[in-house]
Amino acid sequence: MGGYMNRILRVNLSTREYSVEPIAEALIKNFIGGRGLGAKMLYDDLSAGVDPLSPENEIIFVAGPLAGTAAQSFGRWSIFFKSPLTGGYFQSTGGGFFASEMKFAGYDAIVVTGKADKPVYLWINEEKVEFRDASYLWGFTNEETHVLIREELNDPFVRIASIGPAGENLVRFAGVFSDRHAAGRGGGGAVMGSKNLKAIAIRGRKTVPIAMPEAFQEAIKFEIATYRAHPAFESFSRTGTQIAEFTNLLGMFPTRNFREGVLPNWEAIQGSEFDKLRVRKTGCHNCVIHCVNISKAYHGPFKGAWSEGPEYETIWAFTGPIVVSEPGLTIAADRLCDELGLDTISTGQAIGFAYELFEKGLITTQDTGGLELRYGDFKPVLQLIRQIAYKEQLGALLSEGVREAARRIGRGAEHYAIHVKGLELPAYDPRGAKAHGLNLLTANIGADHNYGYSGQEIFGAPIPKEVDRFEVQGKGELAKFNQDMVAFLETGIMCTFPASMMMVNEEVYSKLIYAATGVEEFKDPAYMWIVGERIYNLERMFNVREGFGKKDDVMPQRIVTEPMPDGPSKGQVFEQDELLRQYYAARGWDLETGIPTLEKLRELGLAQR
Amino acid sequence: MGGYMNRILRVNLSTREYSVEPIAEALIKNFIGGRGLGAKMLYDDLSAGVDPLSPENEIIFVAGPLAGTAAQSFGRWSIFFKSPLTGGYFQSTGGGFFASEMKFAGYDAIVVTGKADKPVYLWINEEKVEFRDASYLWGFTNEETHVLIREELNDPFVRIASIGPAGENLVRFAGVFSDRHAAGRGGGGAVMGSKNLKAIAIRGRKTVPIAMPEAFQEAIKFEIATYRAHPAFESFSRTGTQIAEFTNLLGMFPTRNFREGVLPNWEAIQGSEFDKLRVRKTGCHNCVIHCVNISKAYHGPFKGAWSEGPEYETIWAFTGPIVVSEPGLTIAADRLCDELGLDTISTGQAIGFAYELFEKGLITTQDTGGLELRYGDFKPVLQLIRQIAYKEQLGALLSEGVREAARRIGRGAEHYAIHVKGLELPAYDPRGAKAHGLNLLTANIGADHNYGYSGQEIFGAPIPKEVDRFEVQGKGELAKFNQDMVAFLETGIMCTFPASMMMVNEEVYSKLIYAATGVEEFKDPAYMWIVGERIYNLERMFNVREGFGKKDDVMPQRIVTEPMPDGPSKGQVFEQDELLRQYYAARGWDLETGIPTLEKLRELGLAQR
Hints:
The structure is a homodimer.
Chain A: E1 8-12, E2 17-21, H1 25-31, H2 35-45, E3 59-63, E4 77-82, E5 89-94, H3 98-105, E6 109-113, E7 120-125, E8 128-133, H4 142-153, E9 159-162, H5 165-168, E10 176-178, E11 181-183, H6 188-194, E12 197-203, H7 213-229, H8 233-239, H9 244-249, H10 271-275, E13 278-282, E14 292-296, E15 306-308, H11 312-317, H12 327-340, H13 344-359, H14 365-368, H15 381-390, H16 394-398, H17 402-409, E16 419-420, E17 423-424, H18 434-442, H19 455-458, H20 475-489, H21 496-500, H22 506-517, H23 525-545, H24 557-561, H25 576-587, H26 598-603
Parallel strand pairs in A: 1-6, 7-12
Antiparallel strand pairs in A: 1-2, 3-4, 3-6, 4-5, 7-8, 9-12, 10-11, 13-14, 14-15, 16-17
Helix pairs in contact in A: 1-2, 2-23, 7-22, 12-15, 18-20, 18-25, 20-23, 20-25, 22-23
């Protein structure tokens, strides 16, 4: 069987023991791998009620069956864990080269449990696994950590996934970082921090076996041809995810903590402006799109700042929430979050939340350590980021995420906490795109845009058909379509960017995964949809086991009750009840509870018979 | 002929042209290579009166004939240039792996002249030389620059020598940095900055030819055996240059801007304290000593700070001058200087100078940007370092070096400017060791300790014989002995640390250089001394051509007229006139002018007949 190394490394930090096991054949048939593998293992390994920051939680690093192969856009690694931010199932995904190196070292997954008695990092050199002292690395930024570990191991080709000070300090939206790419969302960095695990360093020289090499080459040609035929390929490749003009022109660029949908002077942060700040293009392992930029502020108040990025979400995170349109700030904040180890989306949104609380008088300079938080003023932002990473002053509160911060502040602060299931909303106002909003409402990890990106509504992608973004009717089906597609593509693990742009489909993916693995079931493109839906329902059941249900599929009140005040989405609200009803119906879930019916679970092979 | 690649790369940044030429055979016979090669080329290439920061100045990177070979402690690269700090001849030397990589790429020397019209870096991949855009790197720190260049070139084995913001900003004591090792002194970084040259990146796969491989192996065994037989080898290897206890116990640890010789609470910065802060040992290419430490402040006010180092000079630079004994500060300041691209010795000494001016009321908070400079208070130090690198507030003055800063301040500030020939004094009070002081007074680059380190006085080394450190008689001869020995060892280019500790001698070196090169003249150990003296006099003549003479061999007044107030060197002054007379006599220089006599020059083959 190609594609897989067929080896899962299980590491217990408490006992400093490790073992290797194969992947169950039935698991591969039913879940393919990647996201399917991670979701199934997390579901099976954890019991309900585990404290996310306890030694009993797991963090599972997964490389998909197509990672490390010549297939395009599969250089992604995902981490799976119970989230300290949402309290539920979580998957977070990063790019770069870590996934490929895992395969080259001979592993499809690395499962880490327990807690080390002092800071360690794992050094995985194919068969050799070492628990190495990381006391000296504790407190260091991600880039410093990567440089020093490579030097210590005397091998510049080692790939490293690490946490920064934010993860060490258990910030609930601290991420995990590799090659300046982040698996940013949901607090995987805090889970590593709680285990005293500073980093995983990995190196390998194996090759990934391919079941049918000639067919695989053909499938890759087909994939690349599909990419190139897509109208968005060229601009996406050239500029990356610079789509602030799209969302501003749709009036759904969240501004002033989701009170407005158009950023004043948004032209200053559109793609053509970032074109001027591009240092060079980079990309992940084996991806012709190479959408990544390294950017530098050549002029202005942040002159000299640089980062790998910023991508659209980060550009938004440090503009819209605080009503600022300064590209240099987005670059400086991006770099600072990468170095300290923070998710930019939650960080930016937490700061926007603080700005609104300050405006409303719910917090004062006594809480902020003297900082005045006024919309339009970017001066406090870098200081607030540091406060969050080090849990100082207001940062100590914000580091819990907006949901918990609002709960602790009380006095109505909850009204300004813009999240679903505890995960801060990203750069799309749900009022401007109903299927996209429905995905944010129902994604198993909370308000995540990539979980079921509505390229139909944002980019006008005509697959499966053209839609009206404000229309409610049919959006339950569409959200399910987008979510299930991402779920099966992430068995690869394919990048969600080409998926969001509808640059690939089940046919492309089926050809690739079948040729690589030789698993007969994967030959049928229609089977991909079944696997996608199966994974989606399994994840939902993880959350159901934790007590989640319809009560957690709840938008922030503002999105549901306040019509968009102005701009191209003026007058729109998010019709939560009707949209959710349609969605549950499309999913075959109980309309009252939002729980998958036994019938649906049986259909997907998820129920014990 | 082994040892040499016999190729000098000449690069003109103005025309973006380059050429390769062999080394003249006579040059090798007379000057061996390394320091001899650099000194001779700089002497021949430059005319008197060249502005150090003009395109006409050169910066010559030299790797010695033993760099890149298996001989020990020859992984050093030197840069040669006319100094913007002293106005005279300058050589500055760094460690790491850059020298070896130069050889592997096929070059003994890289001569850079002219000025690029915009920031560039040189990319030297054996025969291929590229002038690459460095606009995006301008403003970046050294470590950032190294990381980004390696990524741009997609080769993690590339070695890089670069400048930080201080070099770009033409700070007159900005250094050049590679592998976190500095060629720190004299302003080579400013020379690169004046040429718009951000970095040289180099990569090679050649091997260094060896004339007599078996004899060379024997010579290396002899060298290593000599090392190991030396009483200092083990402790030097274990702790590095942690000698603050030596100099404090000798009462010559310059404190309070050279007013005192013992630091209060110096026990806090002795080697055993830094042992506790060691993260790991590192070293340069092919050196069994591996004296280098990476250190981290695990506790205290600078918790989390780390650096490669700090070495003795840096430990002193951020303790003695400001009367502070906080190891964390030395680590944080070391790292900041490395990153911004500053020489730690001149930086620390400039800060100590500022503290004394503040005490005396010659500068106020109006000059310092509000900082209060009080002995014993370390809080302003990191801010002052940044001010120097970016030429802000008081830093703009200090960035010119203490000599020029004092001149501009006037009102008697010159009295507090502790330098010789414009180069700030290092961590040895000349009153406590007369031959060591005599070397500081007469070294061709200004007050440099490594130019002729008096291991006899500091460590009690009995070679050529035991001496009394306070004794004046015989110290002219001893200073010459130490200077000439370093000069011939640096034709290797051997590290000055084993030289300072008297761990090697002409016999060891002669065996190595003869076996490597096969040049008959090098077989005779006595010939090494001739070459050393020849180089020393040639360097002196460079300065004579620039107008230097006895008038420039002048100690700061304080050292000559104020007896050491307390401690183990109490009552001592530096007997400048008598010591200098002895030295000139030993050198065969004119006693009135300090200029080498024609007779001496003829004897050394330096006079046109």
